[in-house]
Amino acid sequence: MKVLYAVSEAKPFIASGGLGDVGGSLPIALRKRLIGCRVVMPLYDKIPQEFKDNMKFITHITVPVAWRRQYCGIFEAKYNGVIYYFLDNQYYFKRDALYGYYDDAERFAFFSRAVLEIIPYIDFKPDVINCNDWQTALVPVYYSAYYANSPGFENIKTVFTIHNIQYQGKYGTEILQDVVGLGDAHASLLEYDDCVNFMKGAIECANSVTTVSPTYAQEILDPYYSHGLDPILKARSWKLKGILNGIDMVANDPETDKALPAHFSVEHPENKAICKAELQKEMGLPVREDVPVIGMVSRLVSHKGFDLVKCVLEELLATEDVQVVVLGSGDWQYESFFLEMASTYPEKMAVKIGFIPALASRIYGGADIFLMPSQSEPCGLAQMFSLRYGTIPIVRATGGLRDSVTDSGDNEGNGFVFEDYNAHDMLHTIRRAVHGFADKEGWQILRKRAMECDYSWGRSANEYIKLYKALIKE
Ligand code: GLC
Q1: Which of 236, 244, 413, 425 sits a CA distance of 20 to 30 A from 201?
Q2: How many Å lie between the centroid of ligand 1 and the Cα of residue 234?
Q3: What does 55-101 look like in DSSP terms, one character per residue?
Q4: Which DSSP symbol is given to 14?
């Protein structure tokens, strides 16, 4: 079986969020299960030179972007047993950031078209193309519009994976002809709500639509979570499936993680105390073993639950003996709120604005409790990282959080869970965790249970393989 995994970011080459974690780990897990899986992604200027040095130029082609043809260089590199194709066009990808440009629609229309155009040149005719999020959502659309009956492209099945339904690739309809290059015959595939909507097109055209947790697959059928796409998904729910993400257990291992000041494991958790003390020092908090450190690592945006935090953080800081450590960047209102709290409660609260992977690791490693009160969370990986690092997650029961964290109230779960998106429910749950922390022996048992949870790719990769096989048989 041959799978081409089309994605706009993949670790370790480049990543801006959880998509990059999955892009960097699922293909390796598939390869390990002897599935022929190759990855195709843009050759961003910002990919570190050490990786570029190991890329081999294969050839260059031209790719149609509506009525124009654009240069596309094809480079290849092998990493962890997986072949990666990097598609080069400096006009589109020589930029400081991955996304957020006025011409994103064109940049990723180019990339999606190129994913198909390179197939005759790479000696790899896929049985399945698995695309991800709006950036590659046009692949299934172009395939069904222009390639399905072309020689050399027959019988390719397309899978579209939704990592976050909030970002759909929505544009004005004026881009249809000159940017996307779809004429009247195919315009209806993309049109939705008087806009062009890349994700809607993929949901229509792909043979299968997956999302990153079983709960989220249910949730996005509901208008509360669907950002307008529930009618489209409901009509095609037969092809929708939720498969929980896994994490890279090698890259995220407290026994070897280079970012940590000391290493530990389930069998030898002692050095976690060193990580905690060093984290307190690094963040300028009093070094105290007896106070629970609550960590947050996140984009500071509303759907991550920061409105709840804003509502009750001061009450928490004023009434409980806790330390809170926040790392993230995003909306100004949350950044300034946390900075203000840190200056009002300097002994209890510390914040670092930014995206600093090494500090993120040190928070997973050094904190006692990890807070993730998301309003919605397709899968969420931070709760899995913190479980692996023995940091007990507090989550709201949504999406992948519901599917990976269970409440320890019954002496079986691995964390603390609250159901409703309500600030005082969250506060009550934080208090339960803080009181749980005070019971040293009970906490050690809980930590052990958390660290023993297996969120490696094993089970999930097998589910993808099952799905691919079923599609190929169709
Ligand atoms: C997106 C989602 C996150 C998920 C990740 C990887 O970033 O918001 O919940 O874990 O994609 O699928």
Answers
A1: 244
A2: 22
A3: -EEEEEEEEEETTEEEEEEEEEEEETTEEEEEEE-HHHH-SSSSS--
A4: B
Radius of gyration of the chain, Cα coordinates, nearest whole angstrom: 23
Residue 39 alpha carbon to ligand 1 centre in Å: 19
In residues, how long is the chain?
Answer: 474
Asked if domains 2-246+458-473 and 272-454 share a fold, the reply is yes
| Beta strands per DSSP E along 276-348 | 293-297, 323-328
Query: Using a 6 Å cutoff on CB, does residue 10 contact ligand 1?
Result: no
pTM higher than 0.85: yes
Neighbour-count burial for 438-454, b at 16+ CB within 10 Å, e otherwise: eeeeebeebbebbbebe
Report the share of the chain in percent with pLDDT over 90.
97
Superfamily of domain 272-454: Glycogen Phosphorylase B; (3.40.50.2000)
Contact assessment for residue 296 and residue 321, using Cβ atoms and an 8 Å cutoff = no
DSSP secondary structure of 262-278: S---SS--TTHHHHHHH
What pLDDT, in 10s, does the model give residues 405-456? 999 988 899 999 999 999 999 999 999 999 999 999 999 999 999 999 999 9
Question: What pLDDT does 88 receive?
Answer: 98
Of all atoms in ligand 1, which is nearest to the CA of residue 377?
9
CA distance 240 to 166: 17
Question: Cα(51)–Cα(461) distance, rounded to whole angstroms?
Answer: 26
The C-alpha angle with vertex 158 and arms to 157 and 164, in degrees rounded to 5, equals: 160
> Can you give 108-176 as a three-state secondary structure string?
HHHHHHHHHHCHHHCCCCCCEEEEECHHHCHHHHHHHHHHCCCCCCCCCEEEEEECCCCCCCEECCCHH
Q: What is the pLDDT of residues 53-111, one digit of tens each?
A: 999 999 999 999 999 999 999 999 999 999 999 999 999 999 999 999 999 999 999 99
Return the CATH number of the domain spanning residue range 2-246+458-473.
3.40.50.2000
Which SS3 state, helix, strand or coil, does residue 188 take? Answer: helix
Ligand 1 and 384: CB distance under 6 A? no
**Whether the Cβ atoms of residue 142 and residue 186 lie closer than 8 Å to each other:** no
Domain ranges of the chain: 2-246+458-473, 272-454
Residue 111 CA to ligand 1 centre (angstroms) = 21
